[in-house]
Write a structure and sequence with these properties.
The chain is mostly helical and about 180 residues long. The chain is built from 7 helices and no strands. It has one domain. The chain binds zinc ion.
């Protein structure tokens, strides 16, 4: 299944595709916020671990649905009004970022999500304690590295297409827009 790295890469690609490039000033904050939103549905794993030591007991339920993406997207789009350090992202973009997680789980894994909850629900069938979840997040991430690599190629192509690549630095400098 896509893990935090894979979901973050897919979320960032969705963000870059839908969001007009700006300056580098708030880019790290934007990246952190995108990572949080793109991984938000998997909070149900943490909830299961805390409640009964099984990360799968509530996994892929309501948080992996269209309704959750709409609700969480609305709250996330309003969050910057309460705390100005949170990047200001529109409702549609926030919904897209949360839903990118649900779509990736749905398309890249065999077990179903609860897309139309409350009209359908599919809990994860397996059992995974703290050790299993940590092991999975750390070791079984080959697919995530492939996803991240594919997304990086996609983003590079996207920026070349938009002509907003800045080649005079490394890392985040790629995000700098040469022409405004
Ligand atoms: Zn998930």
């Amino acid at each position: 299944m896509p893990l935090p790295l894979g979901h973050t890469a897919i979320g960032w690609a969705a963000f870059e595709s839908a969001h007009k490039a700006g300056g580098c000033r708030s880019r790290i904050a934007a990246f952190v916020y995108v990572a949080v939103l793109a991984n938000l549905p998997d909070l149900d794993i943490l909830f299961g671990l805390i409640v009964n030591g099984n990360g799968s007991s509530f996994h892929r339920g309501p948080t992996h649905s269209l309704l959750f993406a709409l609700l969480a997207g609305y709250l996330a789009s309003q969050a910057s009004r309460m705390w100005h350090r949170i990047p200001q992202l529109g409702f549609g973009l926030c919904v897209l970022l949360v839903f990118s997680h649900v779509a990736a789980d749905m398309l890249l894994t065999a077990s179903p999500v609860s897309l139309l909850w409350p009209f359908e629900i599919h809990w994860a069938a397996d059992r995974s304690g703290w050790g299993g979840v940590i092991r999975l997040a750390l070791l079984q991430s080959v697919q995530d590295f492939v996803i991240a690599a594919v997304m990086m190629v996609y983003l590079f192509g996207l920026r070349l297409f938009r002509r907003d690549v800045c080649l005079d630095g490394g890392g985040f400098a790629l995000a700098r827009k040469r022409t405004k």
